[in-house]
């Protein structure tokens, strides 16, 4: 039976990591130990970024809703409270899109909660 050595698999593993490090600056792109650390850190940032993106979009939607609501004499919190009392089931993403792209529809929502 032929001898089994891990050199092919380990070389393939290293080549995969170095391929992921393509475009990095300096030794981070071509030295195995440095590239491995850089790629691992990049994956951590990537994971964190997927969570942060959701927070950032929610903050953007809140800012847009606040700006549009203030044009009709509401603060953001008063507007959202009035929406809840009026039982209007629109989420922040939809409200922000209405405020930005369809002001007449947003005004209809405001009129609905003023009743």
What does this structure look like?
With 115 residues, the chain is an all-alpha fold. It has one domain (7-114): Ribosomal protein L20, C-terminal domain (c-terminal domain of poly(a) binding protein). The chain is built from 5 helices and no strands. The chain has helices spanning 7-20, 32-70, 76-85, 92-101, 103-114. Helix 1 runs parallel beside helix 2 (32-70) and helix 4 (92-101) crosses helix 5.
Concise structural overview:
The protein is mostly helical and 115 residues long. The chain has helices spanning 7-20, 32-70, 76-85, 92-101, 103-114.
Keywords:
single chain, 115 residues, c-terminal domain of poly(a) binding protein, 5 helices, rod-shaped
Q: Secondary-structure element sequence?
A: HHHHH
CATH topology: c-terminal domain of poly(a) binding protein
| Major sheet attributes | none
Work out the strand percent.
under 5%
Q: Low-confidence spans: pLDDT under 50, at least 5 residues?
A: none
CATH architecture: Orthogonal Bundle
SS-based structural class? Answer: mainly alpha
